[in-house]
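User: I'm new to structure prediction. If I give you an amino acid sequence, what do you actually give back? Let's try with this one:
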Amino acid sequence: MHARSRKRHWLTISAVTALAALFAIPAGAAPGHPATHPRAFSATVTAADGGGDDDGGEESDEIAEGADQFAEARTSPGTIAPGAFSAAWDALNKLPEYGGSWRHLTGLPYNSDDPRYRDFSSNSSGGSGLVTGRAAALAADDDGYVYEGSAGGGVWRSATGGGHWQPISDALPSQATGALALDSRGRLWLGTGEATTNADAYLGSGVYLLAHPHNGTFTTHDRVGGGELDSTTIHTLRFGGDKVWASTSRGVWSHSTTDLHGPWKLEFAPNPAYLPGGSLASDPNAPYKNIANDVAIDPKNPSNVLLAIGWRSGDTYNGFYRKTGGTWTRVNSLGALPTDADTVGNVTFARSKDGSRYYAINQSPTALNTDPDSNLDGIYVSKAGDPFGSWTRIADTETLAASGSALDEPGFMPGVQAWYNEFLQVDPTNADHVYAGLEEVYETKDTGANWSTVGPYWNFGFPCWSIDPAKQTGDCNPTTHSDQHAVTIGSNHGKAYVYVGNDGGVYKRPLRGQTDADGHATDWVSTNDGTIDTLQYYSVGIGTDPAKHGVSFNGGLQDNGQSILRPGDKVMGSNFGGDGGDTLTDPANGCNIAQEYVYLAVNVTQNCAVNNGAWVDDPTKVTSYDVAPPDNETGAARFIAPLTTDTRNSSTWIAGGQHVWVQTHGYAIRSGDEWTDAFDLGDGHTATAVAAQGGKVYAAWCGPCNNQGFTRGIAVGNADGTGWHQVSLPATGADGTVPNRYLAGLAIDPANSDHVYLAVNGFSRHWTEGPGAGIGHVFESTDGGTKWKDVSANLPDVPTDSLLALPGGGLALATDLGVVYRAPHHTTWSRVGNLPAVAVLQLKTGPDGRIYAATHGRGIYSIALR
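Assistant: Good question. You get back a string of structure tokens that encode the predicted 3D arrangement of the chain. For your 866 residues, that looks like this:
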């Protein structure tokens, strides 16, 4: 699949969110039809005018493809057994520690509307303001304390009603959050493992309880129960009587809230044979057979419980369940709320404090697979407060589109990502006042009779918008970042606020705030003040700043474009919009930058993309250019595709799709026509990693890339198109040979182009049930890739993402749980510093000699390695 552009007034609407999950979409479960997702805008100029990002649309497909890619790297050729990440974290902590301390570089505000960077590929002036990484869960009390659970950067606490954040879960083996909840005693419950089933959602290590959240921090001793929920994702935690209910990727579980030591009880799994230890546990579809989304508990009788069960893309077990005569049975009638398997997908419940109302959002698998506009079934209310109804529909796609939405045209309408974006929250003082989150934030004050889009997707397209660099977003009021995931209500100094969490962090407004004539809120405030850094980087680039003393650095981010920080800056800016994939930065000139969007949609700038927006009226003033290689147009590339330069010639670039593409004009490239096809990896094969040195090129690939017949390989040749051949790798991944798993990284010895290292992702066969999973994560070849030797030694069994070969023989390795290092002339590995259990997706050396790490959840760090 590939993205296609469409025009909206003068805007080119472009697709964008690069998300990810350990949930690969199984065969036959279509993720949804194309839907245009506006995220990066460009002028309606011709190629001769200086380009434009024509990689538009099809956001739903892109999120699904991103989910595929992230899962494939970690699960293929099979499935992961429970306990893998916890075991890897324990092993990592037992490694000797290598000297040196990490320097945190991105702990300052990141302004997505920075007026310095209003070039055509930027989202600056959209209205989101200060942003950070994806917020997956929220909780707040009436004493000014707010708790944020990030997608990959742990749990954070604010004691000031939002802002001045502090991390409180760094000691845990998982920094991925699925759910946060405060119980009646003020204790904070944390469910790890993000459950948005998107492209970069990680599994967790269970549920934890913090007894004194105002001043405590989570430790491994705070885990509730045993390891029953290890290696799951947790969607919600709900309380009823003396029980807490957990909706997980392996069914619904419960636990006493008074006795925390006993094991979790499995309440219901629709297909228990697919659970760990079951007869079908190794089936490739096992991760999708027991998905639980939420639990609704009768406020008058906590033993009456309604379970919402179902995989977003549809399965025969999808539906609602209740216990009758000691057995969980399907509910066949709930009034207007559908109960059939084809229409019940991702569901979110919300109950009013007084028990008089129950609300629900339902996503439709049928619509996901057939409707290009939206897969929202609707928003519903049970006016009796009874979770068993009768339910009435109070909103659908058309209702919300007409409420002041920015998504009011076919192809991308409210609810097009309902499987990914859902929240509901009832005003505790008014059961008719509700906030709902999809791609945007909606509010009703009269039980759904009227709706307002109080947090539009962005302000582009509204009459109040302009690109004026003297203003954040023209004459529009600031809005929230798009793609909503979490909501809570709390008070600070006696004033009530609603907090929303989305792909840009946490925003707040007064609970009963003000709106303009269009129903848009006038009072959103970003709490992403720079003290919270949960930015999810895919890449990093470093170069000497041409105008200032020191180095500047930039990096591609999940749904937050590309950040840039130049020497002396107190605020990071965003010079490219959308999802930032791989990044190239000229070490000699940090304003020469190439940023990959998705599917090899590459843009280049030679002035850091500094622009005041004058290109809107005069297209010749564009200073960023679309230079995507041809595989972008055909879709023959990975969602986040590999892009690199020759280590001895920064003017030679290598890009990997189905083909290995080469261009030799460096940052002066202005057109995608300047790429040449050096080698065709083969039909169905797509590059997963590329490396080049002195004209010699290595390209790793997979295809099929999922656990339905996974294959991988390595091709070697020259940048000029000569000498190409496929390396012979044993198909079974026999002991001592390269495993039949995802090949994630390549690194070449700076002193010898025939000496190359290979990073293999996923887990070894102890944890992965699949043909040829093999053992080992790092392999070495001294003969140009013909023969490979396992040099993993004492390396923990943890997914590995990239390698960096250093002058003198040192080797740095980025893993899903931090960075390890093998010193020159050594054979064993040491842990580098004390990063939290965060994925490090890329390592690069800066012109200052420091190593820069792009983490997917805690920003960018650097360190000096000997």
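You can read the tokens as a compact description of the fold. Here is one thing that stands out. The first strand starts at residue 6 and ends at 8.
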